[in-house]
Design a protein that fits this description.
The protein is of the alpha/beta class. It has a single domain (2-184), classed as Alpha/Beta hydrolase fold, catalytic domain (Rossmann fold). The chain is 40% helix and 12% strand. It contains six helices and four strands. The chain has helices spanning 2-11, 26-34, 43-60, 73-85, 131-134, 165-184, and strands at residues 67-71, 89-93, 118-123, 143-148. The protein has a four-stranded parallel β-sheet, with helices on both faces. Strand 3 (118-123), helix 5 and strand 4 form a beta-alpha-beta unit. The chain is globular. The protein starts with a helix and ends with a helix.
Length: 185
């Protein structure tokens, strides 16, 4: 996320300047400080934490548009509140369409009626929702995709693919900037 935030800030001049704000869910901060693998907080806690961040941003920049998102679960939580909090757009990096190895447990029902325009950047061979799998889902037409060839959940391609992680990052970052510019029209 740090790499994406820095690149989007640097590239933001092409869409009239953007502020990029990152935040860390408290359970992740605890992991970083205490070490180990703490499980995530429950959904209601994560939703409340994200809502509070949005409230703080709107207090700080009341006249600015707001696009939210996140990586994996952070993107999922953002997608669950996007319509409720009335943001201008949604950007998800590596959305977890289902748990690993459990493609029957879809996490897409709220995406069928999502009114907020969304961009989902995904590796084409993501174990949490490959391009082939996602093609069969019923999703709102306002969701667009940036498929990264041979990328996994973190966008990393296999060496034999001819792509690099850096290429995929640049491709996703450029597509995000395009998406943000489209939202400003």
């Amino acid at each position: 996320m740090e790499t994406f935030a820095g690149a989007l800030t640097d590239m933001g001049g092409t869409v009239g300047g953007i502020n990029v704000v990152r935040f860390e869910f408290p359970y992740m901060a605890k992991r970083r400080v205490a070490g180990g693998r703490r499980p995530p907080d429950r959904g209601p806690t994560l939703l409340a934490e994200y809502r509070q961040v949005i409230s703080n941003l709107r207090t700080r920049w009341p006249r600015r548009g707001l696009v939210i998102g996140g990586k994996s679960m952070g993107g999922r939580i953002a997608s669950m509140i996007a319509d409720e909090v009335g943001v201008d757009g949604l950007v998800c990096l590596g959305y977890p369409f289902h748990p690993a190895g459990k493609p029957e447990r879809l996490r897409v029902s709220h995406l069928e009626g999502l009114a907020t325009p969304g961009l989902f950047c995904q590796g084409s061979r993501d174990a949490l929702g490959s391009q082939e799998e996602v093609a069969g889902y019923t999703l709102n037409d306002g969701i667009s995709f940036c498929w990264l060839p041979d990328g996994d959940h973190s966008f990393k391609p296999r060496k034999r693919s001819g792509f690099s992680l850096e290429q995929h990052y640049r491709t996703a970052q450029a597509r995000i900037i395009e998406f943000l510019a489209q939202l400003q029209r």
